[in-house]
Amino acid sequence: MADLAEIQAEPRTVATKGVTREMRRNGRVPGILYGGGEAAVAISVEGAALNQEHGKSGFFSRLYSLSLGRKNYRVLAREVQVHPITDALLHIDFLRLTADSVVNVDVPVMFHNEEESPGLKRGGVLNVVRRTIELVCRSDAIPSLVEADVGELDIGDSVKISAISLPEGATPVISDRDFTIATVAAPTVMVEE
User: Is residue 98 a contact partner of residue 36, using CB atoms and an 8 Å limit?
Assistant: First the structure.
């Protein structure tokens, strides 16, 4: 596993609306740290660093090291509240993880060998059905992405979850059927009159 990005946090007292607004004006984002068999802790995080991480893809499936006082916690971001007009972060929830935690995460799918696909060479269109796959896996084995090879697909063919090699210990949440990830559709041509 790669090094975890670190997020600095400070404990805060659960306060009134005015105090929380003042905190946001000072560039901090209020939040909560919960889970892992410990009590929930009210925290605040530096807004600029959190905005930078929130802008990266895979934010909700990436492990972070949350530094709170003298302790570091492995955490996943679980929910972010965003202002509807300004897109400013208003609140964040972090899930504290232990070594044996099992979590559900949405992992992005990356498609390879599109230029080699016979269907795409003939003008077909790659129709992506699922850009992410929800997986159940241990917290220390969360994959950063899942790779799907479309190099052999012709028009009308599809990539199903059974054709994708998942990391060990990771299973899709949907386990009752072999669902489709992407298909190669025939090109649609509009005839001018």
Answer: yes
137-146 pLDDT, tens digit each: 988 888 888 9
CB within 8 Å of 165: residues ≥ 6 apart = 147
Q: How do strand 38-46 and strand 28-35 relate by DSSP bridges?
A: antiparallel
Task: Identify which of 127, 142, 134 has the alpha carbon closest to the alpha carbon of residue 188.
Answer: 127
Determine phi and psi for 163, rounding to 5 degrees. -85, -5
Contact 165, 135 (CB under 8 A): no
What secondary structure letter does DSSP report for 129? S
CA distance 30 to 12: 8
DSSP string over 131-181: SEEEEEEEGGG--S-EEEE-TT--TT-EEEGGGSPPPTT-EES--SS--EE
Beta carbons of 159 and 180 less than 8 angstroms apart: yes
| DSSP code string of 178-193 | --EEEEEEPPP-PPP-
Closest C-alpha among 71, 79, 62 to residue 3 = 62
76-103 pLDDT, tens digit each = 999 999 999 998 999 999 999 987 888 9
pTM above 0.85, yes or no: no
